[in-house]
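Async update (no meeting this week)

Hi team, since we skipped the sync, here's where things stand on the single-chain job. The sequence we agreed to prioritize is pasted below, unchanged from the tracker. I ran it this morning and attached the output directly underneath so nobody has to dig for it. Comments welcome in thread, and please keep replies under the output.
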Amino acid sequence: MRLLDVIVAGAAVIGLICAESIREQWNFKVTNYKIHTPKMRQDAEPKKIIFLSDLHNHEYGKKNIRLLRTIAKEQPDLILVGGDMLVGKQHQLPKPALDFVMQLPKIAPVYYANGNHEQRMKENTEKYGHVFSLYRKKLKDAGVHFLENASAVEELDGLHVRMTGVELPPETYDKFRRCHLAKEDIERQVGAAENCYQILLAHNPTYYDAYREWGADLILSGHLHGGIVRIPRWRGVITPQAFLFPKYSGEMTEEEGQAMVVSRGLGTHTINFRLFNVPELVVLEISGTEQM
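Output:
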């Protein structure tokens, strides 16, 4: 094959990859997971929870109308937000995220746990000013409940749900660094788990074992954007900490009655690229099982 042919073929492949990445970033899919728990009455109607994560100010239609319509169509009992809806960057306002999240309480009760982007804006006002506090106030005024190292309870007709949002130590998000996180570290932040259906909103899925040991029945995470590029039927390729092939990056894992769902997220930042990794809206259907 002539050199020119190789160059043309390579350029065509690169063009197709770029086109597919752009297509994926401007679309989203609904991913459904079914979860069964003996903590819910077997005869109770299944309950539906929407899980949103990592929007990063992205918009699907004006003011995210496409996303809002899809959520409303699902008729959820709860909407849980796992963080990074905005972009924690100087001089970048969170208006797209604000406009979107403000509409959610009109659909169902909304509980919001911070990701690393919200957390760093909250903790470093010298750099980011009071943007996050104003964002949070407007959302609270609209009916959004924030879970900042805090818990809340909802009764869902046969399911007593306790939702806890934990803010992880900043170093757990540092690039090129692996940190240790234990059950005791989580308890210092949010206290002990309770003997009801315990949902833990923990943005970084890396510490799955600690979340399980803490006592979560359901762990909801995001952060990894599906690994940016996914190897079909296997894993994502890279984490924001620059580690390859993370074990958990965009799937549901179940062990001994506990589950973790990792959202592939709804947006991008810094690396505006996805491949074989369509953004997703996660829909969880929870139903009862026979008591053991």
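Quick observations from my side:
The chain has a mean pLDDT of 94.
The CA atoms of residues 62 and 96 lie 9 Å apart.
Reply here if anything looks off.
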